[in-house]
Amino acid sequence: MTEQLLTVTTCWSVQVGGDDLGAFISCDGLGMELVMEQREEGGNNGFVWQLPTRVKYSNIKLSRPICQDTDKVVNWINNIIQKTEPVGATIRALTAESKVVTTWTLQGVIPVRWTGPSLSADSPKAATETIELAHHGFTVGRA
Questions:
Q1: Which residue in 13, 15, 41, 106 has its CB near the most CB atoms, within 10 A?
Q2: Which residues contact 44 (CB under 8 A, 6 or more apart)?
Q3: Phi (first) and psi of residue 73, to 5 degrees
Q4: Radius of gyration over every alpha carbon of the chain, rounded to an integer in angstroms
């Protein structure tokens, strides 16, 4: 039996449409759901048929403190607004030593939302940004 070591991921490197958007400290929502349709068969009271219909992919939210790469995100969003054309994207989970743990390759990526920092002198929190991406599916593998 082989022993697997727990690998701690400290950040996520993101590339979209060939543009490097930098590293993010939070990546939420990477997942999918298989939508099921229920069909009742006449005369069969023992169960209801569960039939798969389509796959739904949840939006991905990436967050980080405001940094020099924030300009890259805003510029990419402004370019995509000019010609709304889905592009491919890559999210790499990295260790503290910047070693790639695994890679997700996304298809048909469109920015849905970008949220900048709440600016307040009363709050000692770091200024953060969040970008939300919609997509049409992903594959997983090491790169």
A1: 106
A2: none
A3: -65, -50
A4: 20
